[in-house]
Design goal:
seven-stranded mixed beta sheet; 9 helices; 9 strands; single chain; alpha+beta; two-stranded antiparallel sheet; 37% helix
Length: 284
């Protein structure tokens, strides 16, 4: 309706400055819903581009997940091969520096005095500990014994390369954590005593403190056990957590033997992870 209310002329479809827009006759006769060739091409292009972007994003996410998974698997496998791919001086350096590793954050240094031939695990652990470790198998056992700067303490560090996969190592680590197996005095590793060294008298009765770490990003169990170089007997060894407690008064704690075992074990473990390219865990 025109202004005034009376039905009349047809209102123009487009208005520009009050003047009717001239239509192309062909455009006026085009049925509703039909699109020009250029519009169809543009819509199809947008659809293709949109689908490509979505597919690319999804594929990228899949590739990222696969890359992360394959990287972890590669690191785990690489760690398992270190016992025969890496020189012993890189697994057990001749000298190990322990900045802040002693009581009161004092610095420590250790010198390697003996390296055991690579071997199996028979005779390397208390019998019950051997049974606990049986499920992960024993591919190779590497051991080295160190002494501190004063040559009054000796510490054996071991790397047990297992035959387990990641799930097996995770299950073992969970059991150690749940049952607190790393604190039981009937589940200790044995030292490596080498003739003609400060550790010549370092046997089962001389064990004062120990640490055991079950890795989950590598098929390896890292351990260390410490004692006095003079061969004195220890009635009740202490796990490093107890021996490192500031209020501990037992002889191993007072002598810093918990720090010796934990400090060496942590640094050997860090070097192992660095070589394998696995850095998903912090030393315990």
């Amino acid at each position: 309706m025109s202004p005034g209310g009376a039905p009349g002329g047809v209102r123009p479809a487009f208005v520009s400055f009050g003047e009717p827009e001239r239509f192309d006759e062909r455009a006026r006769r085009r049925p509703f819903g039909r699109r020009s060739r250029s519009q169809i091409v543009a819509a199809a292009t947008c659809l293709v581009l949109g689908t490509g972007l979505i597919s690319g994003a999804v594929t990228g996410a899949w590739l990222a997940d696969e890359s992360q998974g394959s990287g972890a698997q590669h690191g785990f496998a690489a760690a398992g091969d270190l016992w025969h791919n890496v020189p012993v001086d890189q697994l057990f350096p001749p000298t190990v520096q322990g900045k802040g590793a002693g009581p009161g954050d004092a610095d420590r240094s250790w010198t390697r005095i003996a390296v055991a031939p690579d071997s199996g695990c028979r005779g390397a652990f208390d019998p019950l500990l051997g049974k606990v470790l049986d499920p992960v198998g024993c591919e190779r056992l590497l051991r080295a014994t160190y002494t501190d700067a004063t040559q009054s303490h000796v510490t054996t560090v071991g790397l047990l390369f297992t035959e387990a996969d990641a799930a097996g190592m995770t299950a073992l680590a969970r059991r150690f954590d749940t049952e607190r197996l790393d604190r039981r005095t009937d589940l200790l590793p044995l030292p490596y005593a080498a003739k003609g060294t400060a550790a010549a008298g370092f046997g089962a009765g001389q064990r004062a403190s120990w640490a055991i770490s079950v890795l989950t990003d590598a098929p390896v169990v890292v351990y260390a056990v410490s004692g006095w170089a003079d061969g004195r007997t220890v009635d009740t060894p202490q796990p490093t957590e107890d021996a490192m407690d500031s209020g501990a008064t037992a002889a191993p704690a007072q002598a810093g033997l918990g720090h010796e075992a934990r400090g060496l074990a942590d640094r050997i473990e860090r070097a192992l992870r660095k070589r394998a390219g696995t850095a998903t865990e912090q030393p315990s």
